[in-house]
Design brief:
alpha/beta, 5 domains, 31% strand
């Protein structure tokens, strides 16, 4: 039994109060008359019973008055959360707000100390910057100048909303604040590089009770510019193998531009290809140029555009692309104990790559084993390797499922040595490669040291894929040549049908792709593709089935044809050639990527073939193009790469475009001097059309019950939010306190006792 709080007592009469009083008076008068007539001989008993009757009448009248209790307003004492999302993509550097850059106005007016202090008096403020990725930051991080802060080459607004507010760890915040105590303030120009409508985030925001307020920075920008972008479809080429250089020309403000494009192979006596380009109103045009080199080496291609009439920015009219060519045909062994479509399509994709020799062993049935070899140098027949030397003849070994039907624990031990000691590479193509039988458990014990994850029991089904932060720089996931940003592709491509459960990703492993369960399953994000360096080799784990569906896409996805083949071709080339030693080398230099953009990091790795002598301390120097005056060579510090004791890494972020030279002093190892090059281009598609999108920002705010503000309304932000929150607050509804079992039971018990006493007194 819960007693009411008498301080919050109110009344909700069922009838007008005069009528209730009248009913009570009439009933009391009738009761007095009845007891006066019946109780003349028993006055004392009659008076006592009359008092009991009057109590019942008073109780009924009180119930008719509707005594109620208003519950406390939870919003009154709850401190709301305000998440501020800050766009740090390079489009925010546009200087179209009274001659000032958008990011500078944002930092000064909206996130200045005074404004943040006012907001923190009323809200628990959480600051998150976003561009390609989302990062929680402290107020001190915003003290940097806008030029330093706004470095992202893409802006993913919808993804930032989902990751930081509407899903993952922040989802609990949204659920806990479904009463309106969680607000989001989006500070951006509304430019989403993924071309998603911002309202795509609205349904989930409304379901979570999260109001998204928007402030739009900037207006329409008129830029007259052409940008040339050239990407090699294959990250590495084999000698005499045909390759493809995909060239794109983007335009802004020059829909009728006509120009000439030239592609020059610098090392071939200025051999040159010329193409006439006519934009004809299109935002971009693309075409492929064939490339073929007969000798191994590093080749330079210079791609340039003649200035178009009216073009104002010429720095992005040239790009240099480096092509690495090797004379080594790579050997791949596929081992499959439980045939499935994924393995069939994977093998077909690898056989299409002329630089690969593919051997496949499949246990088709308990009594039948199928052997297939493609491009074998000798007879074309082979056997499953039985020794470590025979196994080491392959560069990559791909494991399907239930491989215990083909290999035993002794072979698994050789696989472990193949990776750790021989520098080989293993791919888990379909998640956990062994079953739960005794033979499977024996394989699990042998392979555990080289596995990038710890497997659990069972499988997760029906998952969508998305790019993880570490995957953005992985060469196997670079598909610019196909003209399809991977973030956008993954939103439209089929996901995984099922995948092995994973209990832990090892600390030294990198998650390249993540998978998210689809409704009606509870939201859950798990690793889908994981990479780990182990000893001298590496292991790549694709943890589920279903990627084979990328090979037969619906007609509306025809632009992504070839993505599946490119994925597996890139993966094998990356594993094998990403730092290979030439004959006689004790140490090598690996610069990746060889062609990049301003603002993107370059990894410079020095890799030893064996454990270097004590005191081995190589030095690295990067020389930018035209290193005179203010631009000087920069000396970098090398640090060990976790999980790869023979690999040292330095990270360099270029600030000028052009060809950069890398020099390494690797003494006493041979060669003592190493030299590499990489090219940097000033390709800023994010700023090609940097016009703000106020309509999309307003639509998002209105769809979620938020405010749509402009850049000039920073001073009134706190008051505007407070007024809106007060206007949307619904007063608590008072509840009848008599609507409880003990009230009715008490009235009935009292009336019953009065009736029994009347009967005992003979007054009936």
């Amino acid at each position: 039994m819960t007693l009411p709080d008498w301080h919050n007592l109110t009344f909700q009469p069922a009838l007008p109060i005069p009528q209730v009083v009248g009913i009570g008076v009439v009933l009391a008068a009738l009761a007095c008359a009845a007891y006066w007539r019946l109780g003349r001989s028993k006055r004392r008993a009659a008076m006592a019973l009359l008092a009991m009757r009057l109590v019942v009448i008073a109780a009924i009248c009180l119930l008719l008055l509707g005594p109620s209790e208003a519950p406390p307003d939870l919003n009154e004492n709850t401190r709301p959360t305000l998440t501020i999302l800050i766009d740090t993509s390079r489009s925010m550097l546009t200087d179209d707000i009274d001659g000032e850059q958008r990011i500078d106005v944002l930092l000064r007016d909206w996130l200045g100390e005074d404004n943040l202090a006012t907001l923190r008096k009323r809200y628990d403020v959480r600051l998150v910057t976003f561009d390609v990725e989302s990062r929680s930051v402290g107020g001190s991080s915003l003290s940097r100048d806008g030029q330093t802060l706004a470095r992202g080459d893409q802006s993913h607004i919808v993804e930032a909303l989902h990751r930081t507010v509407l899903s993952g760890p922040a989802r609990a915040i949204g659920e806990a604040n479904s009463d309106g105590n969680h607000l989001v303030l989006l500070l951006s120009d509304g430019h989403d590089s993924g071309a998603q409508p911002l309202t795509a985030a609205a349904p989930l925001a409304k379901a979570r009770g999260v109001a998204i307020h928007t402030a739009t920075f900037g207006g329409d920008t008129e830029r007259r510019d052409l940008i040339v972008e050239a990407v090699l479809q294959q990250p590495y080429l084999i000698a005499e193998e045909p390759g493809t250089l995909t060239v794109r020309v983007h335009q802004a403000g020059l829909p009728d531009a006509r120009t000439t494009l030239r592609v020059r192979a610098v090392s071939d006596n200025d051999e040159q290809v010329t193409r006439r380009i006519a934009m004809d109103g299109r935002p971009s045009v693309a075409f492929d140029l064939p490339i073929k080199r007969d000798e191994p080496g590093l080749y330079e291609y210079r791609v340039s555009l003649e200035p178009a009439e009216g073009e104002t920015e010429l720095r992005n009219n040239e790009q240099i692309v480096f092509v690495r060519v090797t004379d080594k045909r790579m050997r791949v062994l596929i081992v499959e104990g439980e045939p499935y479509w994924d393995t069939k399509f994977l093998a077909q994709a690898l056989r299409k790559d002329a630089s690969l020799e593919v051997s496949q062993v499949t246990q088709v049935s308990p009594t039948k084993r199928e052997l297939i070899v493609t491009r074998a140098g000798e007879t074309g027949s082979f056997e499953l390797p039985q020794t470590l030397d025979a196994l080491s003849a392959y560069d990559v070994i791909v494991l399907g499922r239930r491989v215990e039907r083909l290999i035993d624990s002794a072979t698994a031990d050789m696989l472990r040595q193949f990776v750790l000691e021989r520098g080989g590479h293993v791919v888990y193509a379909r998640g956990r490669p062994y079953g739960t039988s005794a033979a499977g458990r024996a394989l699990a014990e042998e392979l555990a040291p080289i596995e990038p994850v710890k497997f659990g029991s069972g499988r997760v089904r029906d998952l969508s894929l998305r790019l993880a932060p570490d995957g953005r720089t992985a060469p196997m996931l670079r598909f610019e040549a196909l003209g399809t940003p991977l973030d956008d592709a993954l939103n439209r491509l089929p996901g995984l049908t099922s995948m092995s459960r994973v209990t832990e990703v090892k600390p030294l492993a990198a998650t390249l792709l993540e998978a998210t369960t689809r409704p009606p399953a509870a939201p859950q994000t798990v690793p889908a593709v994981v990479y780990m360096r182990a000893g001298r080799g590496s292991v790549l784990a694709v943890l589920g089935d279903g990627l084979h569906r990328w090979s037969f896409l619906a007609p509306e996805l025809s632009a992504m044809d070839g993505l599946y083949d490119a994925l597996w071709s890139n993966a094998v080339r990356w594993l094998v050639l990403g730092g290979a030693f030439q004959p006689g080398q004790q140490v090598t230099l690996d610069v990746a990527p060889a062609s990049t953009r301003l603002g993107q990091q370059v990894h410079i790795d020095v890799v030893a073939r064996f454990s270097p002598p004590v005191g081995f301390n190589p030095s690295v120097r990067v020389t930018p193009p035209g290193a005179t005056g203010e631009i000087t060579p920069q000396t970098l510090t090398l640090s060990p790469v976790p999980g790869a004791p023979l690999r040292l890494r330095a990270t360099y972020e270029p600030t000028v475009s052009g060809v950069h030279r890398v020099d390494v002093d690797a003494a006493p190892l041979q060669p003592a001097k190493l030299t590499g090059r990489f090219s940097v281009s000033d390709i800023d598609v994010e700023r090609l059309d940097a016009s703000a999108r106020p309509d999309q920002m307003r639509a998002l705010a209105e769809a979620t019950g938020g405010l749509a503000l402009d850049a000039s309304q920073a001073g009134s932000l706190a008051d505007d939010l407070q007024r809106l929150r007060a206007s949307q607050r619904v007063p608590s509804r008072a509840d009848y306190i008599w609507d409880q079992w003990w009230v009715l039971a008490g009235v009935l018990l009292w009336a019953g006792v009065e009736w029994i006493m009347r009967r005992a007194a003979g007054l009936l």
